[in-house]
């Protein structure tokens, strides 16, 4: 995949931190690539909703990694814990790993509270932190967390030049920012995904024509608003003449009312509801779906890569990248139904490659095999931008 002509120290220790099925799907190509490099030892610190049976116990997917990857698990939350408590416990769990087996580099992804804990823990202990997919726009509290993670990180592995510009705008040194693309595109564009028939059989899905549905709680909205969003979407799905594969939300505040709303679908053979799906199986289902419905970032990022229409409901993805395949919708049943009708009438859009071309792991490993990132210290200086007064 790449050549490592530079001499590496006998062992560099890289710790990847993952708290959700989503960030693991992004990090997995980088984990696998790093584990195959000579002179690199890899630990994956698994926490968050991975360890919660209610959300599918997705730690089992992490455990499928190559035997050479060390898996370390710790619980950072109980059901219903607030984000500040989860943050504190994440930092505490990481501190134990740093005490026992000090890593040379901690790799975190995106805008989750676990990523913030990983970045803060590393920064406070003078351990270099690499942030994957910083510089992007997220709605609600997620956008604040993403930029905070960037400010606590020392190495920035962004998806594209637009994201690089935003990280530099935050006062980061442009020499510490590399546009490597979005790592999950490596998997999306590979020839190793399971066939649709295999996925339908494995998950006992009795239909091959379906919408894919993922709705998450919105952390900055109250319970009543989250409940209204879920109710409007369920009403529209029930009235729609079609099948749906539905994936449970993540464990953000608001998830309970969404799960309660899904109980209305019990016994309806048009719907199959899952706590979670293997990442590769999810991608196969997405590639063949009629549309994606909900407010997941998959509708903004992954669906356009396949040209699949997506109905983006409500405010969660406000301000993020747009694409002709995305239909933005209000939260009422009538608005969601109208957006679904538009999606049904759309042809597949041209695939979007604005976030990468499928070689992120190769670019990442080339950085690890060189000396540039290892030679950098952890002391940071804010980089002022020169702004013209004209």
Automatic annotation (TrEMBL):
Record domain UDP-N-acetylglucosamine 2-epimerase: where: 38-368
Pfam families: Epimerase_2 (PF02350)
Gene Ontology biological process terms from the UniProt entry: UDP-N-acetylglucosamine metabolic process
GO terms of molecular function: hydrolase activity, hydrolyzing O-glycosyl compounds
Official protein name in the record: Unannotated protein
Organism: freshwater metagenome
